[in-house]
Amino acid sequence: MNSIDMKDYKQDAKGNLVPIANIREIDLLRDELVQEIVGKAETTAADLKAFKARSLDDIAAFVQLSADRYDVQLGGKKGNVTLHSFDGLFRVQLAMQDSLVFDEGLAAAKALVDECINEWTQGSRSELKTLINAAFQVDKEGNLSTARVLGLRRLSIDDAKWRRAMDALSDSLQVHTSKAFVRVYRRDKDGEYQLINLDVAKV
User: Fold this and answer.
1) Is the dihedral of CA 53, 56, 60, 61 positive or negative?
2) Which of 7, 139, 148, 173 is a good FRET partner for 162, with 20 to 30 A between their CA atoms?
3) CA 9, CA 23: separation in Å to the nearest integer?
4) 122-160 pLDDT, tens per residue?
């Protein structure tokens, strides 16, 4: 039996081998375009990944150099660093972003919040009950919105049990992961620093 020459076939979305001679020209051109764009995107993504890694290493080395030579610490809160070019035209920032999660202490906080709601909704605070219950709703993956839950702490409620609930809420918050971001800015003619966007969707 003769072996199949794969150069004469293309695999379709269902995994079937289709003879190229039987594929419409427009479909072949579309496939060629997509493959070309994907190839460039993968190369660009690899370049961006390498750029980020080199930038993080270079910034860390400079911070250490500054600390060693001049006894100055450039690192800010949580390791954030801001560097400027000599002429002030450019700014480079290393920003650390924490991913926050709640531990088992959230259950205690929710129980206290529920007690507050049950007491208050006997009066005229039904809108507050709706607001608070919405804060504890989960998404399709079963995850809470950290921002919505933490937003409860901004409510100005002078109640001892509520304050205990907010303390329990704060205590249950844990840093899950910290992610480093490198942001590069150029100062415009008005003196404002504008982000040099490395996000393809926002360029």
Assistant:
1) positive
2) 139
3) 9
4) 655 566 677 777 777 777 766 777 777 778 787 777 888
pLDDT of residue 1: 44
Checking phi first, is residue 93 left (phi over 0); if not, alpha (psi -120 to 50) or beta?
A: beta
Classify residue 94 as exposed, middle or buried by CB count within 10 Å of its CB (0-12, 13-18, 19+): buried
- Which residue ranges of the chain lie beneath pLDDT 70? 1-4, 71-78, 98, 121-128, 141-142, 177, 203
pLDDT at 117: 77
Burial status of residue 149 (CB atoms within 10 A of its CB: 0-12, 13-18, 19 or more): buried
The pLDDT score that the predictor gives to residue 158 is: 80
- Cβ of 114: how many Cβ atoms within 10 Å? 15
For residue 169, what are its two tokens? Answer: 């809420």
**Residue reference for tokens 């529920």:** 114
The Cα diameter of the chain in Å comes to 85
